[in-house]
Known about the structure:
2 copies of one chain form a homodimer.
Chain A: H1 31-39, H2 42-50, E1 56-57, H3 58-65, H4 70-82, E2 86-91, E3 97-102, H5 104-122, H6 124-139
Antiparallel strand pairs in A: 1-3, 2-3
Chain B binds a DNA duplex through α4.
Amino acid sequence: MEEGTSKSPGYCTGTEGDYTARQWDGREDCEVRQILDRIADKWSLLVIALLDRQSLRFTELRREVDGISQRMLTVTLRQLERDGLVHRTVHPVVPPRVDYALTPLGVTLHHTIQSLVHWTESHLDEIAAARSRYDERAATPVPAATGPAG
Amino acid sequence: MEEGTSKSPGYCTGTEGDYTARQWDGREDCEVRQILDRIADKWSLLVIALLDRQSLRFTELRREVDGISQRMLTVTLRQLERDGLVHRTVHPVVPPRVDYALTPLGVTLHHTIQSLVHWTESHLDEIAAARSRYDERAATPVPAATGPAG
DNA sequence: CGGTATCCGTTCTGATACTG
DNA sequence: CAGTATCAGAACGGATACCG
């Protein structure tokens, strides 16, 4: 059962001025935060990506993701199914067969996260460079130099 | 700083030769996932959102987020700074003052995550409904025979 | 094959105390 | 005011065993 559902009608803001940046609060009371954290899950993103334009069965998904354990795949699938992003079809056959596919809602989410993935791919190099710079700064015992200002 | 040193999760190390994910590019997949997992962090998203078009000092950020602990704010800020998304400015004054602001790279990320937030906001109702339906199904002891079938 | 429940280690997170 | 170091509890996640 969810928590804090009756607290805020929509947003859970409290201290806002004129910016649109503070739409959400850091508390779990905010549904946006909760859902965002869910769909941004490492496994969820991967599953949604794999289910794009095709349905896969349990073992197929497991093969595609490979690194995921059976437990996490089940948990992830259940969460996505609960959120109405993935549809689960059970075939009553002797060798059990279960197919998973994106719902229309899941498809729309796929488009959105693709933008985020695209950004990440486009800036992999920049982030890597930034990390290298930061790593050197962290490794530096003392900068010694007073700065380029003088 | 125990979590300051990020190690490989073990998923994308040593298996870069057998990626079957057709959506993303082979070994880049793990990097994408790593960065994605970082920027999709609950606190990171909030900090980036708050720093949009303005710079804030440590206490100001703490007041805005409020629910975050001093420790997590520091950790989050360090990670964002390391990834080149947030710039840290230290003022050598008697009352210590440190300002945080988005870098140009951070600004571009802000635009992207806003899309994700927008999607979440737009589909809050659908997800809530889906969860309600799923919750009822979970509460069902046993579906027994299918209704319309028999 | 698909799924669940349990055990156990790892990671994350918050509260606290201390420094400059 | 800003930051660091440490500890304890919670949550996460993997491996295993077992069921339909």
